[in-house]
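Usage

Read records sequentially. Each one opens with the input sequence:
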Amino acid sequence: MLVAALLLAGFGLVPLASGTSAQADPVASSDFAQPLVNGYGADPEIYQQDGKYVMMYSFDIVDPSRAATKDIWAKVSDSLAGLNSAPLTYIYSLEAGHGTKFASGWMVHDGGYWYMYGIGDAETPNQIEVIRSEGDDILGPYHFLATISNHTSPTGVGYAFFPIVVNGQFYATETGDNDHSIYIAPMNGPTSMAGGWTKIAQATAPWECANGRCIDEGTNIYIRNGIIYDIFSAGGYESPDYCVGMLTASVSANLTDPASWTKSNNCVISRNDSAGVYGPGSAGWFTATDGTPWVVYHVKTTTDINFYGGDRRLEASPVTFDGSGNPNFGTPQSINSWRALPGLDPGIRKYEAESATLAGGAQVRGATSASGGQYVGGIDVPGASKVTFPDVYANWTGKHTFRVYYANHSGGPSKQAITVNGAAAGTVSYAETGAWGLSTRAIRWTSHWICRPDRTPSLSAPHRVMQSSIG
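and closes with the structure output:
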């Protein structure tokens, strides 16, 4: 006998706002956990489009058959709380004749297209490849656009090539490998350099020299009220004193003039010993669904000098501005802590099984260990027992994740068939839990799609998700 506790719909699945149903409104989470994504994390990239968050990954181990390449993948969610459980979505791999690996750099959105920049060949680090989306969708599809044929690095060899667009003008920023300083150069649009490099930041202060390595590297900008806020990493990434610094400039200034840029006097995001997190770095801006600015960055969980980087985890936090336009980035939080979700973020929605439509012997039962003191049992008649959630829908087309919390003391595995709008969408198998009562064990189910006719923020008809006993 399978005891279904509740269905937790990931990716911010939400109930229909109007209409009739036997199902009660689900309970939405109001916060998300740090780390943002479980396990190792470094150099995060988050973008937001049409109410969904997209976290880009550059992997060569997701699919062993593609081990010779470095493919681009993404986690997609309409809630920050859903990124952790989101499945990986394949985005792009370098096309034939354009290098051997696409090591992701950064993305810009301009003129109705998304541009992604990366190193096209690991043996030729100056070879910058550009890919472009077919249209305005950040998830692509993408195709090779061009190699920046007239690109040369500022000090012979460079890294951290980040394009930026200010007032419609493309610029390239890059870190010189020899002097570890940040340079900027104008571009003729997205695929061609237009001028030489100018150094705009060089590590000179103690806070820029963690572990004795004086480094300023990376670029990520946010523009507000005519001011460019450019955050970068300072020092050796292996150190607990690694931190985030900031450059500012006016959007009307000559950005290739070093005098146009002002560097912060200290770290703007730094270690938080009381929380047990250290070395914040590789910070990037993103805009939350309510329009507010946020940053995502990695932190170290140890004070070890760790060049491997396996102690890094991801955090995200809001940014506020004072009356003078100075940003406040807050401080990193401890691992396993919680932070409030931004406004308009739907969170993760929890649907209680006892509020679903039941059939075939499935019935509501009481248990003090169950959420709300109730659960659904008796889901054990193949082809007849059903638990139907009639009002589940998503804000965008794509693959979404459900979790089912359950207990199973039947003496062996139990299975349920899943249907979405009457169409078969796979099965889930529940392992024996060894005891009655509500289990904390959860099954993640991702082998289905919930679709909408478009990607606009407006909501469509609900989707009917049903679990049926099959043994």
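Summary fields computed downstream for this record:
- DSSP finds no helices and 37 strands in the chain.
- The first strand starts at residue 2 and ends at 9.
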